Amino acid sequence: MKYSFDESDLTSEKSLWDVYKLSRRIHPKKSQVIILLIVMATLAANAFILENKSESILTDVRKWAELGFNFGITTLGFLIAGFTIFATLSKPKMLLAMMEHTNKETGLPTLKYNFFAFMKVFIAYITFTLFYLVILLFGQANGLISNIGGLLPYSECLGIALIKITYVLIGGSFVHLLLLLKTFIFNIYAIVMNFLRWEYHQD
After folding, report:
1. Banded pLDDT at 155 (limits 50, 70, 90)
2. Domain residue spans in the chain?
3. pTM assigned to the model
4. Under 8 Å between Cβ of 96 and 104
5. What is the C-alpha to C-alpha distance for residues 182 and 83, in angstroms, rounded to an integer?
6. What is the CA radius of gyration of the chain?
7. What is the DSSP letter of 46?
8. Between the CA of residue 73 and those of 53, 58, 86, 130, what are the distances in Å?
9. In this structure, are residues 129 and 69 in contact, taking their beta carbons and an 8 Å threshold?
């Protein structure tokens, strides 16, 4: 069977960075953005207005980073395992037919649109897990970040601001990762239903 696309289009992305750049065409739903902004605004209000003790915020940052790292690594393992099984069971003929069709919203082939939705979740989990790891390695008492910060002018003010900003980012990242997990689960369901529709029409 002849296809309208070139076979090189299937392997045009040579790195995870290439996949990420294209996956940015897939925009999150407005409800997800609103929820994330509300959570981050609430955390910012607590850090910059309500809570005066930066030591307690720093303690939360370190605990949250450890919790986030464990959550990210564990969840990422399950997601990759589930996706591998899902991709293995997929029928090549249907996937190639999806490559023929173009998603109007993003301009991407439907095949890559569906798979980029999964890759976007993986990339987010990897990115935030690395972020948590940096805090665990370099953000401890007398760690690299505090030692370098102590050499800078206005180190105390900069340190407090950095702690509070990190507090907001980590708290917001938890919500973001959970929302991505919800999207991932729905995408699995939606694509399985599309597989069944394909089989329905083939029969």
Report:
1. low
2. 29-202
3. 0.88
4. no
5. 15
6. 21
7. I
8. 31, 23, 20, 10
9. yes
Positive/negative CA dihedral, 123, 125, 126, 127: positive
Side chain identity, residue 1: M
Q: Which residue has the tokens 């996706």?
A: 83
The vertex-83 CA angle with 124 and 105, nearest 5°, equals 60
Amino acid sitting at position 74: T
Nearest 5 degrees, angle CA 131-CA 125-CA 48?
45
CA gap 163, 141 in Å, rounded: 13
H/E segment holding residue 181 = helix 155-202
Secondary structure tally for the chain: helices H, strands E: 7, 0
With a pLDDT cut of 70, the percent of the chain lying above it is: 96
Residue with tokens 């940096």: 134
pLDDT of res. 124: 94
Instruction: Report the C-alpha gap between 195 and 158 in whole angstroms.
Output: 53
Burial class (CB in 10 A: 0-12, 13-18, 19+), 63: exposed
| Residues whose CB falls within 8 Å of the CB of residue 29, separated by 6 or more in sequence, listed in order | none
Per DSSP, the three-state class of 77 is helix
Ramachandran region of residue 154, left (φ > 0), alpha (ψ -120 to 50) or beta? Answer: left
